[in-house]
Amino acid sequence: MERRPVPRKKQDPTKEAPAKPRKRGPAKAAAPAPASSRSASDEPPPSSAGGAGREDEDDRDTGDDGEPEHADGDVIEVSGEVVDEDVQVDANESVAPASSDGGALSRRDPLQAYLREIQRHPLLTPEEEQRLTKHYQSTQDVNTAARLVTANLRLVVKLAYEYRRAYKNIMDLIQEGNIGLMQAVKRYDPYRGVKLSSYAAWWIRAYILRFILNNWRLVKLGTTQAQRKLFFNLNKEKAKLAAMGIDATPDVIAERLGVEEKEVVEMDRRLASAEASLDAPVGDAEGRSVSRVDLMPSATSGPEVLLERQEMDRMVHDRLQQFRAKLQGKDVIIFDKRMAAEDPLTLQELGDEFGISRERVRQLEARLTSKLRDFLKAELGDAVDSG
After folding, report:
1. pLDDT in tens, 281-300
2. Which residue, 175, 207, 244, 342, has most beta carbons within 10 Å?
């Protein structure tokens, strides 16, 4: 029996064709993983430092909504360290690869990098410290000194943090403290029964305090021992007196600190006043913007003063020529080669020329100077300074 082909049913164009099965990929995560479960290879959140953060966002894996993964976590672990994502990044800071083994990105923080670096140097046991300090004292070996210094770098950081309120840049304080530590290692005597750390603490603090005094203001403070004592204790002493209900007057503070009352007043004024730049613009009476330098009196003299000075110089020069014309013998040579010369001879050189002692030349010069002073006073009167 002959088979007839079955007519194919036409598909209704209004109905959608069934979707072709697509190759399934890896399932998309429903929610970000918890902060504690992230690996060291996860990338940190985008930096707020301009384009560097935007480039990091583009390199991240994103979902359909364009939001990067791990965008809403609190902390992430980068290169084995926990980093707070909410920390503000300074515009000058950059994002750079932390290390070749982790492949992660981390912010460049000089302080944190330094702290990680000093952790690589192990501490010394008391026996090792005694052995190394005695060896350095006897041999002055540089490698031994370096071992003693690096083992105590943590101490410098600890002491520098005590003064972080007095000076903002903690790295500068650490650097100065390290110089003090090196001085302590150089001067330490292991036979006095004092630990190196206890001895070094004094040197470290001394260098840090000196740095703060020299750099706290543009105008140097604390040039005397009393000023240094007031710089570090004035506000502290005021707080103590206020807590006891005592009026912190300059005389009371001076008596408690063992300084003069005028020094208390001066230091209090300098600590309370802010620095002002001479180049800062200020408005003058006519509304123009000028700097403080423009409003300061000129250091140069006016034309009338310059003319007066030139006239006086001319008169003195003429009188000196008149005085020289009256001299004779050794006085002429002493006047020309010592008193009026740009490169005067010494007393010994003139003595050798005259064949007399240097003391005799000094006496002749003193007599000639007295004659010259009397001559100028007689000729010019009050215009000559008798001193």
Report:
1. 766 555 566 666 666 666 66
2. 207
